[in-house]
Amino acid sequence: MEKGVTLSASGLNDQRWSVVGQTYVPKLLTEEAFVWHATIPVDSFVPPHIHPHQDEWIYVISGALEVEFMQDVHKAGAGDTVKMPRGEAHGIFNRSGQIATCIFGVAPSRKLYDLFVQLDGVTDPAELTRISALHEVDFLPPPDAGA
Questions:
Q1: Which of 48, 88, 92, 104 has the fewest beta carbons closer than 10 A?
Q2: How far is the C-alpha of 8 from the C-alpha of 29, rounded, in Å?
Q3: Domains of the chain in sequence order
Q4: How far apart are CA 102 and CA 94, in angstroms?
């Protein structure tokens, strides 16, 4: 890691990604950790998925999120930290009625930075799932409509 400051209005290498309708701005990247700022619009979400090799966390700056660990729902507001251990399926939802801003992080970094580079602007769910699996993020199949 190089010393210095990543300014609030910029990301590493001036990068900014649109991933599942959310805006991600990378702030720090080492082999041990990857940190990004996220703007999560109202009613947007990240479908349930698993990071088999990474712990993930979210620090909520503004707004509120719901994180679902299967049927176990946790609500987090400004100032709260959500902890998502590796191997634990989780989905992230903004049902708050207002934009949420947060800082996300994973440790170790593994392939997640490269995943976001590949996913920038991808809107097809099947393609998102395929690319994610190549980068060690496994999306769960949608629930059975008849269940």
A1: 88
A2: 16
A3: 13-136 (2.60.120.10)
A4: 11
